[in-house]
Amino acid sequence: MRKFLVVLDDSRECLNAMRFAAMRAANTGGGVTILSIIPPDEFNHWIGVGEIMRAEARERIEVHYEVFAKWMRDKQNVDPELVIREGEPIAEIMAHIKEDTDIGVLVLGAGVDSKGPGPLVTHMTRQAGSLPVPLTIVPGDISKERLEAIT
């Protein structure tokens, strides 16, 4: 089964990327993998604090994921998989794509503010020619109705 890989983060554009991935998966018989990345721990010298922060980050990710997962299950009949990795986002995305050979498409949401589309989109589009899977970039301000029409 082909899976759509979508990155869960705190950005607003993440919502449309999630919607797109779920709708495409529902319409093509695919699956969705939601990848969330915990950045490298800056508190390594405070091991106890670092472990608490890591546990809190995982808990926050799981709560955030469950909101999207419930919508995907209830509205799109897609049961997403959550993967949490720790490290640098680009490296972890690429590593996961290489490890999970069922990943068929990477879906990212593009920011709409004056800062540009966001660091992930910027980096991945520069590398698009050498990515092991197609890249779909979903505009951050596209309407839900437009998403439904194009998926």
Task: Walk me through what this model shows.
β2, α2 and β3 form a beta-alpha-beta unit. It contains five helices and five strands; from the N terminus they run βαβαβαβαβα. The chain is α/β, with parallel strands linked by helices. The two termini are 18 Å apart. The radius of gyration is 15 Å and the shape is globular.
How are the secondary structure elements laid out?
Blueprint: E1 3-7, H1 14-28, E2 31-38, H2 47-76, E3 81-86, H3 89-99, E4 103-110, H4 119-126, E5 135-139, H5 144-150
Parallel strand pairs: 1-2, 1-4, 2-3, 4-5
**Basic shape:** globular
Spatially, the strands of the biggest sheet line up as 3-2-1-4-5
Overall residue-averaged pLDDT value: 92
What percentage of amino acids are in beta strands? 15-25%
Distance between the termini: 18 Å
Structural class: alpha/beta
Sheet bearing the most strands, described? 5 strands, parallel
Q: What percent of residues adopt helix (DSSP H or I)?
A: 40-55%
SS summary, helix count:
5
Features:
5 helices; globular; alpha/beta; single chain
